[in-house]
Design goal:
The structure is a single chain. The chain is of the alpha/beta class. The chain has 5 helices and 5 strands. It has a 5-stranded mixed β-sheet with strand order 3-2-1-4-5, sandwiched between helices.
């Protein structure tokens, strides 16, 4: 099968309102390889970004947007086949199903009519979807190793790396006595 798998994950430090997002892209055919993909091959493809003044939901969407925009830029109009976005985020997995209601309410809360906190992120996500028409695949996070398929094993690797990157950043922040907003 032609196409690519885009894995995204994010980890938030709620008290500091900062987080780390990461992604990598693999040919879909690599998901069919028996035994999965080696960690060294994944590390070479892994990209990280730090986000400040964010929340859990915003961080997941920001990470997905950054990954989708990077993928789009790297492809530069080439026909790369179908894109599959893998995420453990319930928000990312359900956003396309919520699209009609969000747009009908102009990205405002039904009762208060105030704009949703992440309205601009949701709008951008839908713009990228319209441009790329990717598939969203919800990965169950934190599964037992014995019950993982290749996609779950790859996602588990990504999850560990993102949490480690956040720990390193928080340690840097604590050492320097600053906040994420100053980095």
């Amino acid at each position: 099968m032609r196409g690519f798998a885009l894995f995204t994950d994010a980890s938030l430090h709620a008290k500091l309102s900062c987080g780390v997002g990461a992604f990598f892209v693999l040919p879909i055919a690599m998901l069919d390889i028996a035994g999965g993909t080696g960690a060294a091959a994944l590390l070479d493809r892994l990209r990280f970004q730090r986000f400040t003044a964010t929340s859990c939901t915003a961080l997941e969407v920001q990470t997905a947007l950054w990954a989708l925009e990077s993928y789009r830029k790297d492809c530069r109009g080439r026909d790369e086949g179908r894109l599959q976005l893998y995420s453990d985020s319930q928000c990312i997995a359900g956003l396309l199903n919520r699209r009609a209601a969000l747009e009908n309410n102009d990205f405002c809360a039904k009762r208060s009519r105030r704009a949703l906190n992440n309205a601009s992120l949701y709008r951008r996500y839908f713009e990228l979807y319209d441009a790329q028409e990717f598939d969203v695949i919800k990965v169950t996070g934190h599964t037992r190793p014995s019950s993982r398929d290749t996609a779950h094993s790859i996602f588990s690797f990504l999850d560990r790396e993102v949490r480690q990157a956040l720990r390193v950043w928080v340690h840097e922040l604590i050492e320097h006595g600053g906040s994420a907003a100053h980095i």
